[in-house]
Each structure stands twice: as C-alpha cells, then as structure tokens.
Amino acid sequence: MARLLTLMLNGRKRVDAVADNLLLLDYLRESLRLTGTKTGCDGGECGACTVLVDDRPRLSCLTLAASCEGRRVETVEGLAEGGRLAPVQQGFHEKLGAQCGYCTPGLIMASEGLLRRSGDPSETEIREALASNICRCTGYVKIIEAVQHAARLRAGGETR
C-alpha cells in the first residue's frame, strides 16, 4: 500500500507517494537521487546511512520513510549553504577526517547532530556520538580532530 508523505527535506517541503514498507534510505537514494547517504550493512551496524531527523541522527536503513511524516530530514547534501561547506564538512576537509570517504557522510551527519546538541563536546562525547559509525580505514584520531575543529569553526574561534 502507498501513502502520501509530507516532510521537510534539506529545508524544502516535499510531498511524495511512498510505499508503506519503503525505507528512508531507499527513498533518499532511489527516489530522490540523494546518493550522499550510503548503503553499507543494511542492518543498522555501520552508520554509513546516518541522516538527521528533527536534528537527531537516525539510521536510514532501519527507518521507514513513512515514519518521517511531518518531520525535518537532513542529508549531507543539505548541509552546505550558498556553495560554502558547513563547519562540520570544513572540519573533515581541513583535518583530513575522510579516508576512502565511504563512511564520511554518515560520520558528518552524526557529528552535525552532536554539534547541534553540544557546541563544545569533549572527546568522550564525540566518541560516544560516533560509536555507531564504523570507519574501516582509520583509527578515528583524524575524525575526532575534525569534529573538534568543526566545533571551533561553529563557535567562530577559527577562520576557514
């Protein structure tokens, strides 16, 4: 069965017909061609599909699109404004937080969710916020540095 889904996606209202069993991941990637949200494990274990729903990180591979009715959904494509990277994207770029890049959109969205809740997170808070995001290429040192740098950029403490 299908239903009309109304939501705010990356700051714009959308109304689409979706099947009741359509995953948010598939809605974003297949229906809307927003391919920054990655398919990884398909089981909620890797975090590559992380998006924000009402400012909170959510695994889109475990979320039905229909459950986002009336909510705000944000993907990595929606973070940049006016052609400029968002602070969290800039942090990952400047501090080399991306290795192969496959997990990076999910890590960026989980980090953005954290920074919206805590403007100056401790290393422990960063590690906890990113615990459900797996990167197979790194030891997370550069990722943590990227999030710390992004926090400073958001606070205006460093220039781009």
Your description of this structure?
This protein folds into two domains: 2-78, Ubiquitin-like (UB roll) (Roll); 87-155, DNA polymerase, domain 1 (Orthogonal Bundle), CATH 1.10.150.120. Helix 2 (87-94) packs across helix 5 (141-155) and helix 3 (104-117) packs across helix 5 (141-155). A hairpin with a 2-residue loop joins strand 3 and strand 4 (56-59). It has five helices and five strands, in the order E-E-H-E-E-E-H-H-H-H. With 160 residues, the protein is an alpha+beta fold. The chain is globular. The protein has helices at residues 24-31, 87-94, 104-117, 123-129, 141-155, and strands at residues 2-9, 12-19, 50-53, 56-59, 72-74. 32% of the residues lie in helices and 17% in strands. The chain has a five-stranded mixed sheet, with helices on one face.
